[in-house]
Amino acid sequence: MSGRSVLITGGNRGIGRAIAEKFIADGDKVAVTTRNGDAPEGALGVAADVTDAASIDEAFTTVEKEHGPVEVLVANAGITRDTLLLRMSEDDFTDVVDTNLTGAFRVLKRASKGMLKMRRGRVVLISSVVGLYGSPGQINYSSSKAGLVGMARSLTRELGGRGITANVVAPGFVRSDMTDALDEDTQKKYLASIPAGRFAETDEVAQVVRWLSSDEAAYISGAVIPVDGGLGMGH
């Protein structure tokens, strides 16, 4: 299973970085797309913007030249522009959807060309507990993340017979610089809603992504795997 060509969008920090480091530790050839070219040690960093199809094509061309056709695609890049519905501008909505959902479409379409030729591939789309659980102030974000479920399931029906799987990982609250910066009362409020009583570590999300990309998960496709400590109860 090691030595595969793996591409992770938004792999320079947070969950994406943890995923990259997990594949690197397994001996895979890992590339990450970022807007500034920063990358974890041992990974190939390629500057790309998921809202720009031309830059995505250029990034894939670079990765294919260095590592070969992408065998594992992790669509992780995403943004938020949280605000309540009545204050949300159309740009607030469309920009988030264009990055989180249409961006995943762009990289998926480009990756599928090589996967079809190889007759194998693993696609993991990083969604969120709010994609099906919902969250006030996140109509744009939750809509984009819910759309990834339909994307994975439609891809499974289209390409499942070609040795390609597509699954969704839906993290809940994950420990990060942002959650660490929350005041104590806010952290307690969030933690009270999580049956596990704690935030996830980025490594816990990364391990699930790695497993879904392995031979052990070859017969799993179109699934939504929550990594949320029971917050959404499987949605």
Layout of secondary structure:
Elements: E1 5-9, H1 14-25, E2 29-34, E3 44-47, H2 53-67, E4 72-75, H3 90-118, E5 121-126, H4 130-133, H5 139-159, E6 164-171, H6 177-180, H7 184-192, H8 202-212, E7 224-227
Parallel strand pairs: 1-2, 1-4, 2-3, 4-5, 5-6, 6-7
Give an account of the 3D structure.
This protein is an alpha/beta fold and 235 residues long. It has a single domain, classed as NAD(P)-binding Rossmann-like Domain (Rossmann fold). The protein is 45% helix and 16% strand. It is built from 8 helices and 7 strands, in the order E-H-E-E-H-E-H-E-H-H-E-H-H-H-E. It has helices at residues 14-25, 53-67, 90-118, 130-133, 139-159, 177-180, 184-192, 202-212, and strands spanning 5-9, 29-34, 44-47, 72-75, 121-126, 164-171, 224-227. A 7-stranded parallel sheet has the order 3-2-1-4-5-6-7, sandwiched between helices. Helix 3 links the parallel strand 4 (72-75) and strand 5. The chain is globular. The two termini are 31 Å apart. The mean pLDDT is 94.
Question: What's a quick, concise take on this entry?
Answer:
The protein is an alpha/beta fold and 235 residues long.
